[in-house]
Amino acid sequence: MIVGAFTGLLGPGGIQMISRHTAAVLTAFTAARGRPGRVLSLNDPPGIHELAVDGYAFRFEGFGRHKGRFTLAVASAARRTSLAYIGHPNLAPFGLLLRLVRPAARYAVATYGIDVWERLPFPGRLGLRGASIVTVLSAFTGERMIAAQRLDRRKVRLVPPALDPTLLRSATAGDDARTALPAGRVLLTVARLAASERPKGVDTVVHALPRVLEAVPDTLYVVVGDGDDRPELERLAEESGVAQRVVFAGTKVGEELATYY
User: Fold this and answer.
1) Could you give phi then psi for residue 119, rounded to 5 degrees?
2) Residue 127's closest CA among 92, 84, 78?
3) Calpha distance 50→80 (Å, rounded)
4) C-beta separation of 168 from 258 below 8 A
5) What is the largest CA-CA distance in the chain?
């Protein structure tokens, strides 16, 4: 059996999107090889759910944040598991549980960014070290993780995230978003603008923009998203003298979001 263990598959967010893509690929992978698979999600509502990504349908079981039931499900599946994909470093210790039940099993752990920049609690570090592969979204995060978790760099694989294929198909020529923006070459960030998520770096880009504009005068920085940090970021753009070259577009979804990409 091949098992996918995730923090969440429903709702908005980059990690959720990457998790949905991965769950769909895992399901297609197991079906093509005639092998059983199971997809588990800790934080989604209890019960069986169905999703599809660009025609790749899959089913998964949610556990409503009940860690005890989730742990029992992983332990039960472990008896038949040859390979597991663990979709967040917070779940890395479940790889140790898997190996405890079935020592021959292998597992991979997905990481994203600041979740692994600093030293994890011992079970998390041990879970990462026991993995066959640990994926990262950027080389920068890979280096930070290797140093912070004292991880063997031979295990680390760079796997950048993809845009949802349905999102790409929605972005048609002559879209409204492009025509509504001032002329220039666009630098785009799509993110929640929460003060707790400052490491995403919108403020860093705004700070750097005066120097960018010296080299590329028609640069336009477009920020899609909203949150409690937006007023502070808008103030920063004013103070940095780049407010005319920064567009805070607010929250966009569906086809409207696609046009910004």
Assistant:
1) -60, 125
2) 92
3) 23
4) yes
5) 61
Cβ atoms of residues 250 and 224 within 8 Å:
yes
Q: In order along the chain (261 residues), what is the average pLDDT of each group of 10 residues? A: 95 89 94 93 97 91 96 92 96 94 94 94 96 96 97 96 77 60 89 87 96 96 95 96 94 83 83
Contact 125, 149 (CB under 8 A): yes
| pLDDT at 179 (0 to 100) | 67
Q: What is the pLDDT of residue 23?
A: 96
**Cα–Cα–Cα angle for 25, 30, 35, rounded to 5 degrees:** 170
Nearest to 97 by CA among 70, 121, 135: 70
C-alpha 184/C-alpha 87 separation (Å) is 38
Calpha distance 154→166 (Å, rounded): 34
Q: Which residues contact 180 (CB under 8 A, 6 or more apart)?
A: none
* Plot region of 16 (φ>0 → left; ψ -120 to 50 → alpha; else → beta): alpha
